[in-house]
Design a protein that fits this description.
By secondary structure, the chain is mainly α. The chain has 3 helices and 2 strands, in the order αααββ. The protein is globular.
């Protein structure tokens, strides 16, 4: 799956997948073959951070 480049669309897609299919970010990244550090960096640059407690970026 090609992930969106736009950070707001990226956050939306990742949060949808976290909500519907994955119990945590590590599981999503492993299953989708995504570099967790790179993903977090992209979203952090747009002002989003991952909440383990809520299993989503905000």
């Amino acid at each position: 799956m090609q992930l969106p480049e736009d950070p707001f669309m990226l956050m939306s897609v990742i949060n949808l997948k976290l909500r519907d299919f994955y119990s945590n970010l590590d599981e999503l990244c492993e299953d989708m073959d995504i570099d967790k550090k790179e993903l977090c960096s992209k979203l952090s640059a747009a002002g989003f951070e991952y909440s383990e407690e809520n299993n989503k970026f905000w």
